[in-house]
Predict the structure.
Amino acid sequence: MRREKQKGVALLTVLLLVATIAVLAVAMTEIMTRSLGRAAAGEARDQGFWALAGLEAAAIGYLEEQGEAIDQPVSPLFQQPVVLPFEGGTATISFSERSNCFNVNDLVARSEDEGGYVTDQAAGGRFADLVEAVGGSRNAGQQLAARIADFIDADDDPNASSQDDYDYRRREVPYRTASTLLASVSELRAISGFSRDVYRPLAGYLCALPTDEVQMLNVNTLTPEDAPLLKAAAGDALTMSGAMQIIAQRSPAGYDDVSAFLEQPLLAGRDLPSDMSTMLTTKSNHIEMEIVVQTAAGRLRQVSRISRADGEPIVIERRIGERLP
């Protein structure tokens, strides 16, 4: 009887061991499967990032080859995207003209005496004109311009209608002002006064370039939607309807130079700002390149802002990820 009981215990022990080993084998198989899946996905994702880097470098080389041909009023570069297949996926490349915007960093100017940036009053006036042109009030535009300048400048002295570092540090979630040029237009949401309702109508007309210089408008690529930018550059010398009329009546051949634009009949006799010619150009100084790579790992999107202001195309901004709503 005892021997039979021992046999039963031994059998039960063996069955438990077999069951345990089976469970461990299933768990290890699942772990290995997941590990192999992650490795494959990581490899495919790395391939996508390498594709982004390679395509960007190739596109820069292409822009160098094109040279001044890009500056045609209707450049083939901006007409339709290019689809390129490669091993393991496809890439879609599209170019857009992005010279026409107001550089928010133009609201300050470098001061050697102050050791940083100080408010640029003339640029503040143009920003106020832009706010008014998109439906806001000029007074509100002046206040917003002052707040941007104070967010960027090096001192802790707020203007009459703005706030500085001390005010931001007193908030429920405290933070400090940038005290340097903005890297993205989205940073405006951190500045007092830029609520969602204020930011959204303006965002499409703004850019944040790595310089405190004015962003020149390309008179050959202005669209009716860009009329507020032209109105802001001309100040009180031009109405919104006048700006839209000038853009609408541009010939397909465009203008040979800025002088030809300023001498057209629609601008004759107007008291234009003396420095308006310095705010205009016939060249595409800034180009936005969007690359979308589709691989087994999914979709990768990169947007690169390319500057041609100094002749050679260079990437001054790069964003990876989907566009936020």
User: Anything to note?
Assistant: The mean pLDDT is 85. The longest strand covers residues 286-295. Residues 222-275 form one domain. The chain has three domains: 9-99+286-320, 103-213, 222-275.
